[in-house]
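Thread: uridine-5'-diphosphate complex, take 2
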Amino acid sequence: MAEFDYLIVGAGLFGAVFAHEAGKAGKKCLVIDRRDHIGGNVYTEETEGINVHKYGAHIFHTNDKRIWDYVNTFAEFNRYTNSPVARYKEELYNLPFNMNTFHALWGVKTPKEAELKIEEQKRDAVEQMRAEGVAEPRNLREQALTLVGKDIYEKLIEGYTEKQWGKRASELPAFIIKRLPVRFTYDNNYFNDKYQGIPEGGYTGMIEKMLKGCEIRLSTDYFKERKSYDNVSNRIVFTGMIDEFYGHRFGYLEYRSLRFETETLDMYNYQGNAVVNYTEYEVPYTRIIEHKHFEFGTQEKTVITREYPAEWKWGDEPYYPMNDEKNNALYSKYRELAEEEDRVIFGGRLGEYKYYDMHQVVARALEIADKELN
Ligand code: FAD
Ligand code: UDP
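Output below.
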């Protein structure tokens, strides 16, 4: 008889939701994480009375009432609405692309005027491509130009995207942006989902509640003591990198990494908004986050974080799976091995090599837990 029913590798959102469900079903769980804290990438930590999102801005949003009700049993969510501002050189624009953006770009005031302007911009882009002998968009640059035209593309998309992915837009596949939503209302809400907010007091408290009743071991790497951890439980839930689990036998999956630079400033309000995107290529970071605004903070000081996209190499934090065709094909080989496992379940952003948002991780963990436990 093993000591635990489940060993859960990774105390992130996936691991925590699964652990909670298993606990409810009377199972005994051991949760380990190689980091020195719980929460994975949603981890928040208090500085100067402000909950700092240590791994970048995290805004919970979902259309699914069941998921919203579920997370609300662990935390009270505030009414924060994400409305990022984009800064291009000395100009400021509202995101997502909406009437405020169009007014600032072209001085148009009505939806009709804005629609005509966008149509004109798209037509010019298509004509230029035809003149160059291009029939269908072959890359992200051409795709974006035909969807929104030159002004929006050059000021708000090109530089940001090239920094984020470390490649020229003309070298990125078109399928990355099938759609670029434009909205003909004066509405700066970034998400279309019905429910949105930030857990009051930060995400760490929410994860702590999910993990209540489990044994937790931090700064503990599964791979460093694999043999002993393989014997500690009947079953394993693995939320780390699936290619690492299999010793990279088919090759390394690729990720995109980030570097965060956080500063406490002796001022009340630095940028007047939680998220400001820097869309020009020459500024090396993609965004600055001012954490207090996620919770309408009134503290005397403020904490800001600059987010720099970075090349990923083995040993760096794998923030974004690169879900292009090459990597997805490699992942499916690992997936085939995973399907053969009789006591290991793979889940989450790294375990399933999929760029899940938080609501999707919660939904997936509930689905897997339900299958597993019932
Ligand atoms: P993780 O949080 O990565 O947890 C996995 C855990 O496993 C980690 O703690 C890791 O240390 C641990 N681990 C890995 N290998 C081992 C090992 N060998 N031994 C022990 N432990 C191990 N989503 C939204 O919905 N809204 C947002 O606004 C949003 N913004 C984001 C911004 C950024 C910059 C990033 C990177 C992500 C954002 N997300 C957002 C996505 C969100 O972070 C993820 O959906 C979620 O955190 C995934 O949870 P997870 O448990 O799958 O993975
Ligand atoms: N994007 C952009 N300009 C912006 C913000 C986003 O062109 O000001 C593009 C960019 O290609 C980016 C994608 O939209 O990779 C998704 O960005 P978002 O901030 O929505 O997602 P996140 O990086 O937080 O997952």
